[in-house]
Design a protein that fits this description.
The complex is a heterodimer. Chain A is an alpha+beta fold. Chain A contains 13 helices and twelve strands. Chain A has a five-stranded antiparallel sheet with strand order 4-5-8-6-7. A four-stranded antiparallel sheet of chain A has the order 9-10-11-12, sandwiched between helices. A three-stranded parallel sheet of chain A has the order 1-3-2, with helices on one face. In chain A, a hairpin with a 3-residue loop joins strand 4 and strand 5. In chain A, helix 5 runs antiparallel to helix 9, helix 11 runs antiparallel to helix 12 and helix 12 runs antiparallel to helix 13. Chain B is an alpha+beta fold. A seven-stranded mixed sheet of chain B has the order 3-5-1-12-9-10-11, sandwiched between helices. A six-stranded mixed sheet of chain B has the order 7-15-14-13-8-31, sandwiched between helices. In chain B, helix 6 links the parallel strand 10 and strand 11. Chain B starts with 15 loop residues before the first helix and ends in a 13-residue tail after the last helix. Classes of the chains: A alpha+beta, B alpha+beta. At the A-B interface, helix 8 and helix 13 of A face helix 19 of B. The structure holds flavin-adenine dinucleotide (FAD) and iron/sulfur cluster.
Amino acid sequence: MSLPPFMLLRPRRLDEAVVRLADYGPEAMIVAGGTDVVPNLRAGLFSPRALVDIKGIGELGGIRFDPRSGLELGALTTLTAIAESSVVQEHYRVLAEAAGTVASPVLRNMGTLGGNLCLETRCLWYNQSTVWRKACGFCLKKDGTVCHVAPGGERCWAVWSGDTAAALMTLDAEIEIASPRGRRRMPLTEFYKNDGMDRIRLGRDEILSGVRVPARLAGYRGSYQKLRIRSAIDYPLAGVAVAMQLENGICRDVRLGLTAVNPAPLLVREVGELLRGQRFSPEAVEAAAHAVIRTGKPLKTSVSTPEYRRDMLRVFARRALTRLWSSNGGH
Amino acid sequence: MANFSIVGQRLPMVDGPDKVTGRGLYTDDLALPGMLVGKILHSPHAHACIRRIDTSRAEALPGVKAVVTGRDFPNRYGILPIGHDETAFAVDKVRYIGDNVAGVAAVSEEGARQALELIEVDYERLPAYFDPEETMKAESNWIHDEKPHNIEKEYHHQFGNVEQGLAEADLVVSERFACSEVTHAALEPHSTLAHYDPATDRLTVWSSTQVPYYLHLTLANVLGMPKEKIRVIKPLIGGGFGGKSEVIPVEVEAAVLSRQAALPVKITYTREEVFYAHRGRPIQIIELTIGAKRDGRLTGVKARIVQDGGAYCGYGPVTLLYSGALLGAMYDIQNVQFDGYRVLTNKPACGAMRGHGTVNTRFAFESLLDRVACELGIDPAEIRLRNQLQPPCITVNQLRVTSYGYPECIRQVVEKSGWGEKRGKLPYGKGVGIAGSHYVSGAANSIIRSEMPHSTVNLRVEDDATVTLLTGASEIGQGSDTIQLQLVAEELGVRPDRIKLVAADTERTPIDLGSYSSRVTFMAGNACLAAARNLRKQLFEAVARVWGVSADQLEARDDRVCAQNGSGKVMSFEQAVAAARQQFGTLEATGSYAPPAEARGGKFKGAGVGPSPAYSYSAQVAEVSVDTETGQVSVERITVAHDCGRAINPMTVEGQVEGSVWMGLGQAVQEEMIWNQGRLMNPSLLEYKSASTLESPEIVPILVESVDPEGPLGAKEAGEGSLAAAIPAVANAIYDAVGVRITSTPISAEKILKALRERQKPQARGNGGRR
Ligand SMILES: Cc1cc2nc3c(=O)[nH]c(=O)nc-3n(C[C@H](O)[C@H](O)[C@H](O)COP(=O)(O)OP(=O)(O)OC[C@H]3O[C@@H](n4cnc5c(N)ncnc54)[C@H](O)[C@@H]3O)c2cc1C
Ligand code: SF4
């Protein structure tokens, strides 16, 4: 499968890039590391007239940490850089773990944080070649009228399959968005629409320029648990991210995020309400795990069964909470 | 131990440097002036009649040089003489999603793609069959009219008396096993470059094939051209594993498109198309019964096998016959019954895949044997030893066994894996399992019935005293070039770099049947030895004359010829060649090999498959750990002993053994083609789960050299025999670890978890399992 023809634009500055996006409107598409865009183009999922390659924009790189203002990550920071950053490992463990599980070493060297947060949603009926999709009459998400996963419905359930978003949500991350009109900020939790077809709140002329994580959460214990068939390469089939603050064995604060089971990464807020102020007990963990599987709603979008993925959400929630809570050092 | 100088050396593979530096040329790297891009239109339906095809709009597209449909080249072909059911493109009917409907050749890939979209096909859909047991019940709309009830072939073999054997047993166990479909996933997708030259009326084809000779025959037949007008060349191959061991649609299609366009045409499959061409290991449902005496001696084995073959014959009946022929033949079992059905379904055709036909039955047999051992309270390693063959012998199904390193393999893996200290003694969640397997060193009977030698090798000494080795054998990454070179160098007593190898080019090299059934080392190897000995005879004769000694006093070694009569006379290889030239003019020799009549098996229907001049044996101990909350298994170590007769190159043998084990592990725990109404849901290397390096355990290879009386310097097969045992070894280790037996592959986390939950109470654990 060859790439379809397109124009490649390579702006050097952010303001120039957003103008280019505005110029081409819906016919433009951003490419950063290209590890998601390129396979999708080959599969005929998009046919943009212009591909705006943002990799040359210097101001989008870098990891900065300040104990007072927290962590700042440029959109072009590679997943390898995040996973290997000592600052991230030390202060925001859950993020380092999640970034380190993405795809494979080669793809992490190319893949960026921005791309990871803006990933296309995935489905076994969608991530296929044009010929394949045509043979089954296409589907709602692209060129068709039915959903093969939930026939009869009007919604697309393609799954959010990124690893870092759930981790960043547990860290109260905010994203920064640039457009020809300037910059705005938004909590990461509000960025996702939970719609397989239309995944993020990002205008056609907008670029996700960076991510900020508050200083307040520095030092939280963290754990990211990922279900996959192979220990490398594979997208998550389910993922649980937990960040927790402990004081003398008492849970002062905890957030739990889910990924790869719904069309968006989600925070399970109930977990915080259940566990805050408590000492570790298997019963408390069980109650939290129960809340998790009420939120996670896997469907038949992948090669693994929804039942197994749901089961694993419970196991992973239990494991992550137990690991962080019942031990002294965490790791 | 024989005193070899080159055989037994860890010589790096001769084709290695070109491959690792990227210099080597695979088919897709080749280009010719004016070359067109070919593309194929595939069926979107699993089963449908083609009412009408209109290609006029595609033909009118600028840049399109040829459009071909089924009616243009209707001659049927197939790898087996009994199974000529394929055509270049579907003539009136499509039989699976992905079946070949039409082909175009255009000046650009984009043009070819657009042309495909302009072809209008009017289909009339037919009821389709996807389940192997359901398809046998079909009363109408058979996939091939001439195959009633969608049964391609059935075989019923009875050796000894199974009912009596089972009646005499103290323990009889039965189980239904089910194996999912797996595929080769070779790194190189199939690719063919065909060049029909109208000026000479000749066709030259470069193709990613394991069988240039059969491709040559098939092209002549499909194109209606005389063989001498066709030349087939095999460039470097990026892995075959059986997926290139029969003629694949792309090869015929590139040729017919080139013929039509009168220009060179290249087609390289997309990965998705590789999955449609497939020919991998079929779904098999195996109902197996084993009977044993209290002391572990097996009194009978009975198997009913339903094999889901997909829509075409391919190697299917051979696959099935291997399942039956090798079912009981590695042990001394006097009563064996096999009932097998190769059925047709509306899915891509299955075929030969590493361990052809033997793998799924081995999984079933070795799993059930483990249960027999546990229920009788016998060590699973010991029960295998108690049932060993006593070679030389003929098995009940008339397979001749000349060398048998299996008992030694078992003893070695037991010792090196720490079996005795581990079995039943590791903490819950960890376990060890043992299993064995075997494989043919080449089929004793060729696919096309003929008395022709299976391999022929020519040697020619050039002016500069280099030796040209002309062989039809196909290097596909398994080491065939290196092994042949080592054998010839050994026999001629010359440096390996003196030998220049020319291989697998039907115009220049003698006939070799190809790289399948692990036949090359044995057969082309024997042909190499024969040719080298003939050549050496000429050299010695000439040197003997110069020295006035008798030829049998001479020895060739280290690039020299020496007299062994105490005279201390020595001559360099160059001088010897010069002397021989004086006497003979040119210096050439030929050698060939055909399996002896005694190795060709019985006379019953289906007896042709299974016989081999020699068999390899493998024993393995797998060590696993099971996560009892997620069901995930990790295989931590495989200790494997392989009886390869003689390791001509221990490094390449170890590579083959490790590769076989690794491939077996993929099928054991994670690989599977996932179907939905005949639609393959995972036609990509992302969703088809071949193991990554992280799931690849430590593999400890041990080579057992039983020195076969007929093998080249004692060698037997090494490339396939160690695959099958990996799967039951893991299954048995899982049982040792957590007490559940999974009877289907892949042994996924989900299946294990389900089995663990079903067996909730610890007391419910089977006999022999722990905790
Ligand atoms: C084999 C394979 C396995 C993979 N496994 C995983 C996995 O396990 N986990 C996982 O999370 N991902 C996985 N990926 C996906 C991908 O590699 C990563 O998510 C990576 O982080 C994407 O980053 P990128 O820079 O390459 O994105 P790109 O491909 O460049 O872009 C991805 C999407 O984001 C948009 N985009 C990129 N940057 C911006 C920006 N700054 N502002 C707005 N929009 C933007 C693009 O338009 C596109 O829609 C896998 C990919 C492959 C090919
Ligand atoms: S969930 Fe339904 S609509 Fe969405 S991609 Fe999958 S099949 Fe298509």
